[in-house]
Amino acid sequence: MVSQITSGIKISVLTSFEGTYFKNYKIHFAFSYEVTIENQSKDSVQLNSRHWEIHDSLNDLEVVDGEGVIGKKPVLKPGEKHTYSSGCLLSSPFGAMRGYFNMVNFTSTRSFRVIIPTFKLSAPFALN
Questions:
Q1: How many domains does the chain have?
Q2: Measured between alpha carbons, how far is 104 from 52 in angstroms, rounded to an integer?
Q3: Rounded CA gap, 81 and 93, in Å?
Q4: pTM score, two decimals?
């Protein structure tokens, strides 16, 4: 698990290899990840959008921008957590993801960016 705190918001990510799949006559490596967003600040905040950079060892880069996370824009009061799960397909057994959440502080009405730390994706069978 990797974790990072930005502006009082702790992001933790846990990853798992889910298996291999054939899609369009090509093998893909499926990974899941669980993200926990914990508000360690003294203010209520809301997650409005996300930005992901998904890299694989073949140097492919996929950029994903979107509203909220899995269809939600969670509001977190001080001390609250929001956890969600998602996944991605890579062309190789190794990769990494990183990104950020765009959030708003309800007390100051200030928008701010919370860093999602880089986390590795690796299929266990490919490791020495």
A1: 1
A2: 18
A3: 31
A4: 0.94
